[in-house]
Design brief:
Blueprint: E1 20-21, E2 27-30, H1 34-59, E3 63-64, E4 77-78, H2 94-122, H3 124-129, H4 133-137, H5 139-147, E5 151-152, H6 162-186, H7 188-191, H8 196-201, H9 204-231, H10 234-243, E6 245-248, E7 254-255
Antiparallel strand pairs: 1-2, 2-6, 3-4, 5-7
Helix pairs in contact: 1-2, 6-9
Length: 269
């Protein structure tokens, strides 16, 4: 009878998310898990439909007020006419626009809750988005660097800077909940089971105005976000949000066009 020989211990599996060195001192780093990428692109679709259908709803009465009633004579703000190509559906259609808006509002809410619950459960929200006290104390230096359009492209981009963190936290915990609360407070179906939200908002017209302001802040965020994606490397940023992998440069490298950039300290003229 032969003695059985135990199999040799298996080699540790290679970490598929480990850094991948590239030429020129660059490194491929794992940045966005699948949940982040899927929820991001679902948000893109949902927000586009919400904004375009929301513009169609607003076009039915393009004036905003504070309080309980719309007086027509003294609006707080009147919005300009929007071209049809910016509307869903194209052409003024309040009933159909509301159907589109309500459907994608719930897609947006459910998708956002999936991301938030997953981020909290895995600790990603704390690790990636919640700023530390030290980072907050460095807020103004970060503002000055952003004002100079100086964006590091080396190991510093492994983590979000304090401005990014505060912006994302404000969107997730303040602006988006405000959109949800003001939207619910205007819903006749929700009002049928309780009017407390409408009372907190100060009336239907106030809720409508706050909903519009929240939408405007989201649009401002999108404009800045897309602008920075383009400025700091469109293809690299898009690749990271599609595949999860992001390329960081060698120490001292910066992102963005080279025009009028001040040379890093120590670089030869």
């Amino acid at each position: 009878m032969t003695e059985a020989v135990a199999d040799p211990p298996a080699e540790p599996a290679e970490d598929r998310r480990a850094d991948r060195p590239r030429s020129g001192g660059r490194v491929d780093v794992w940045r966005h898990p699948a949940v982040v990428r899927i929820t991001h692109w679902l948000n893109v679709v949902a927000v586009v439909v919400l904004l375009m259908s929301g513009l169609n709803i607003l076009a039915a009465h393009p004036h905003l007020y504070w309080g309980l009633r719309s007086t027509f004579a003294d609006p707080w703000l009147s919005t300009p006419t929007v071209p049809d190509w910016l509307l869903i559906p194209q052409g003024r259609n309040l009933a159909e626009a509301r159907n589109w808006h309500f459907l994608f509002a719930w897609i947006f809410v459910i998708n956002g809750l999936v991301y938030l619950v997953w981020s909290l459960a895995t600790g990603r929200f704390r690790r990636r988005l919640w700023p530390t006290g030290r980072e907050i104390r460095g807020f103004w230096p970060a503002v000055k660097e952003h004002a100079r359009l100086h964006f590091p492209a080396d190991d510093h981009v492994r983590t979000y800077n304090v401005i990014q963190k505060l912006t994302y936290v404000a969107m997730v915990l303040v602006i988006l909940p405000m959109m949800l609360i003001t939207g619910l407070s205007m819903s006749p179906g929700f009002n049928a089971i309780g009017t407390v939200l409408l009372e907190i908002m100060g009336g239907r017209q106030s809720a409508r105005t706050l909903h519009f302001i929240s939408a405007g802040l989201i649009v401002a965020f999108i404009v800045v976000h897309v602008g920075l994606v383009i400025w700091t490397g469109f293809f690299n940023n898009m690749r990271s949000m599609i595949t999860g992998w992001f390329v960081i440069g060698p120490p001292g490298s910066t992102a963005g066009p080279k025009l009028r950039r001040r040379r890093d300290e120590g670089e030869a003229p």
